[in-house]
Specification:
This protein starts with 6 loop residues before the first helix and ends in an 11-residue tail after the last helix. It has one domain. The chain is rod-shaped. The longest helix has 34 residues. It is 71% helix and 0% strand.
Length: 97
């Protein structure tokens, strides 16, 4: 003897299957899904690299500022900056362009 599913049981199974498909889709494609997480991790890595580059630039500028400060004056750096900014040249130098 074969048993047939009632209409309500059939509707219940269809609704459950649709809910399962919806939640599976949301888990992969949704705003908190797997693909969004991978995208956020990639963006995080990129921002960390950018932060590190900017920190290195800040450290370099901080070093140059300290070397040109009143407490610590690096004469070689001062000479280099004056030549670069003012276009100064010593009498015994030859400029090649």
């Amino acid at each position: 003897m074969t048993q047939r599913l009632s209409i309500s049981a059939l509707i219940f199974f269809i609704v459950m299957i649709l809910l399962g498909v919806y939640f599976a889709y949301a888990a992969v494609q949704g705003p908190s899904g797997i693909l969004r997480r991978v995208q956020l991790q990639a963006e995080t890595q990129e921002l960390i690299q950018q932060r590190d580059r900017l920190q290195a630039e800040v450290d370099r500028m901080r070093n140059l500022t300290r070397r040109l400060s009143d407490e610590y004056l690096d004469l070689d750096l001062l000479d280099e900056r004056a030549r670069d900014v003012l276009g100064l040249v010593r009498a015994d130098e030859i400029i090649i362009r």
